[in-house]
């Protein structure tokens, strides 16, 4: 049985992480979650944020897609320079409709991992976290507890807080990026970086931390620390179009 399993959505970011883990740990099966239906996603966001914020986020999507398309042509050069392997994962792949489906629990109980690495999925339900006696570890693209949720590097810079632009490896609990901290690292992205590329600079520093965390978890030596009490904590989402443009003009953070 494999010692480590990955739960993720299909992306080049996922492929880089899984290939890195497989180089160090051998057989690392991958459980891929389908994207959440758009209608379900919008209903959930509307309940949580309201129509004005969601409209602003939807308005931002075309701009972010243009931005990603412009920088994607340089993506492979970045991977090559950083020594990252984004090639396709062609074996030990399982696909589930949702990471919280009964099928996911069946797969985990069948594979019996000691460590489950999770990233870019929906929030894991408690029943999944309790389905196997494994350590669930997340790569979070932000410094917790200050920048929970999405795009932590962008938000730290947008808030004028570059000292907390970075990445966190943490244990997963029932909250949103509230689990005990395993390791953190700050980054200072170049001025040419932006909303669509910050995550690559975060991944470069996150991978060694993740590999060390998995090694420690497999040998029962995982060291964790709770977030310092009293630190302001907030969950972030995608920016609105007007918020993004305003921040870009005021702070030159894109």
Give a short summary of the structure.
This protein is an alpha/beta fold and 254 residues long.
Describe the structure.
By secondary structure, the protein is α/β, with parallel strands linked by helices. It has a single domain, classed as Rossmann fold, CATH 3.40.50. Helix content is 43%, strand content 17%. It has helices at residues 12-25, 38-49, 51-72, 75-82, 102-111, 126-129, 152-158, 198-218, 241-251, and strands at residues 4-9, 30-33, 93-96, 115-119, 135-140, 147-149, 166-171, 181-186, 234-236. The strands form 2 sheets. It has a 7-stranded mixed beta sheet with strand order 3-2-1-4-5-7-8, sandwiched between helices. Helix 1 (12-25) links the parallel strand 1 and strand 2 (30-33). The radius of gyration is 18 Å and the shape is globular.
SSE topology:
Elements: E1 4-9, H1 12-25, E2 30-33, H2 38-49, H3 51-72, H4 75-82, E3 93-96, H5 102-111, E4 115-119, H6 126-129, E5 135-140, E6 147-149, H7 152-158, E7 166-171, E8 181-186, H8 198-218, E9 234-236, H9 241-251
Parallel strand pairs: 1-2, 1-4, 2-3, 4-5, 6-9
Antiparallel strand pairs: 5-7, 7-8
Helix pairs in contact: 1-8, 2-3, 3-9
């Amino acid at each position: 049985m494999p010692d480590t399993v990955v739960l993720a959505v299909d992306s080049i970011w996922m492929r880089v992480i899984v290939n890195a883990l497989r180089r160090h740990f051998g057989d690392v099966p991958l459980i891929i979650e389908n994207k959440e239906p758009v209608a379900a996603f919008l209903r959930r966001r509307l309940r949580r944020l309201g129509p004005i914020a969601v409209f602003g986020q939807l308005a931002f999507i075309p701009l972010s897609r243009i931005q990603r398309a412009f920088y994607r042509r340089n993506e492979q050069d970045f991977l090559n320079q950083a020594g990252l392997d984004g090639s396709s994962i062609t074996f030990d792949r399982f696909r589930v409709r949702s990471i919280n489906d009964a099928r996911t629990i069946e797969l985990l109980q069948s594979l019996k991992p000691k460590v489950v690495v999770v990233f870019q999925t929906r929030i894991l339900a408690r029943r999944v976290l309790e389905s196997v006696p494994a350590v669930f570890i997340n790569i979070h693209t932000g410094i917790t507890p200050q920048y929970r949720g999405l795009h932590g590097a962008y938000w730290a810079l947008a808030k004028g807080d570059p000292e907390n632009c970075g990445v966190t490896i943490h244990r997963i609990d029932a909250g949103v990026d509230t689990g005990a901290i395993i390791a953190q690292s700050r980054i200072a992205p170049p001025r040419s970086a932006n909303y669509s590329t910050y995550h690559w600079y975060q991944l470069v520093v996150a991978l060694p931390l993740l590999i060390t965390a998995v090694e420690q978890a497999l040998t029962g030596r995982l060291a964790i620390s709770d977030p310092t009490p009293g630190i302001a904590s907030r969950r972030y989402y995608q920016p609105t179009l007007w918020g993004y443009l305003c921040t870009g003009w005021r702070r030159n953070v894109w």
